[in-house]
């Protein structure tokens, strides 16, 4: 199939990247999109590198003032598997309260994940979960999971299951508490809502 050409110069800026990725996603492996633009789309390249490292080709065909043409080819059927980071490194620095040290944050994903860090004695107050189940892996430290049926002592290595809509809280022990959460992606992202005993 011949390459698809897309001239984005007349497309409003907020619509450009979604249009480009929409066309790219519809391509078969080996097919390509020829992007025509009036500047070097470096931010678009950064977005491709974040979402699809190794899964696309980026070849400049023309690089002239107000005339850029880039051949963006599809190398893999889906986003390639990759290393995202190291939890041991992420949990090295001091934390003075509660902190989201890392989160899974790129478009097109099916999961959300956060690395939560609580300082010694820190807490996340009682709240009710949203519409998704959450898997929690305690990475380091110790503390307490507050559940409707009572407190559960937790320590490094524990795997916790937080069913959707369940009541929960977290409090850290004397060494703090670091844990990784994983759940189905939601739009908008999950937020912690204060616990309402009447609900």
How does this model look, in words?
The chain is mainly β and 199 residues long. The chain folds into 2 domains: 71 residues, TusA-like domain (Translation Initiation Factor IF3, 2-Layer Sandwich), CATH 3.30.110; 98 residues, Jelly Rolls (Sandwich), CATH 2.60.120. It is built from 3 helices and 11 strands; from the N terminus they run E-H-E-H-E-E-H-E-E-E-E-E-E-E. The strands form 2 sheets. Strands 5, 6, 7, 8, 9, 10 and 11 form a 7-stranded antiparallel sheet that branches. Strands 1-2-4-3 form a 4-stranded mixed sheet, covered by helices on one side. It starts with a strand and ends in a 15-residue tail after the last strand. The mean pLDDT is 91.
Write a concise synopsis of the structure shown.
With 199 residues, the chain is mainly β.
Evaluate the radius of gyration: 22 Å
Gross morphology? elongated
Separation of the first and last Cα atoms: 56 Å
Strand pairing plus helix content: what structural class?
mainly beta
What kind of sheet is the major sheet? Answer: 7 strands, antiparallel
The domain tally reads: 2
Ordered list of secondary-structure elements with their pairings:
Layout: E1 4-7, H1 13-26, E2 32-37, H2 42-51, E3 56-64, E4 67-74, H3 87-90, E5 98-103, E6 111-118, E7 123-128, E8 134-147, E9 150-155, E10 159-162, E11 167-184
Parallel strand pairs: 1-2
Antiparallel strand pairs: 2-4, 3-4, 5-6, 6-11, 7-11, 8-9, 8-10, 8-11
């Amino acid at each position: 199939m011949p390459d698809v050409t897309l001239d984005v110069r007349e497309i409003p800026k907020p619509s450009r990247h979604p249009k480009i990725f929409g066309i790219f996603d519809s391509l078969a492996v080996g097919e390509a999109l020829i992007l025509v633009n009036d500047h070097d789309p470096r931010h678009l390249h950064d977005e491709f590198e974040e979402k699809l490292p190794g899964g696309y080709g980026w070849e400049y065909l023309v690089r002239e003032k107000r005339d850029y043409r880039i051949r963006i080819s599809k190398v893999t059927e889906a986003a390639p598997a990759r290393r995202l980071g190291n939890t041991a490194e992420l949990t090295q620095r001091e934390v003075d309260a509660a902190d989201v040290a890392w989160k899974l944050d790129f478009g097109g994903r099916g999961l959300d994940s956060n690395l939560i860090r609580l300082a010694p004695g820190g807490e996340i107050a009682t709240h009710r979960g949203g519409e998704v189940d959450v898997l929690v892996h305690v990475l380091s430290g110790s503390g307490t999971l507050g559940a409707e049926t009572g407190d559960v002592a937790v320590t490094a290595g524990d795997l916790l299951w937080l069913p959707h809509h369940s009541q929960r809280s977290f409090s850290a022990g004397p060494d703090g508490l670091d844990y990784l959460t994983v759940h189905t992606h939601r739009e908008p992202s999950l937020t912690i809502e204060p616990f309402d005993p009447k609900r």
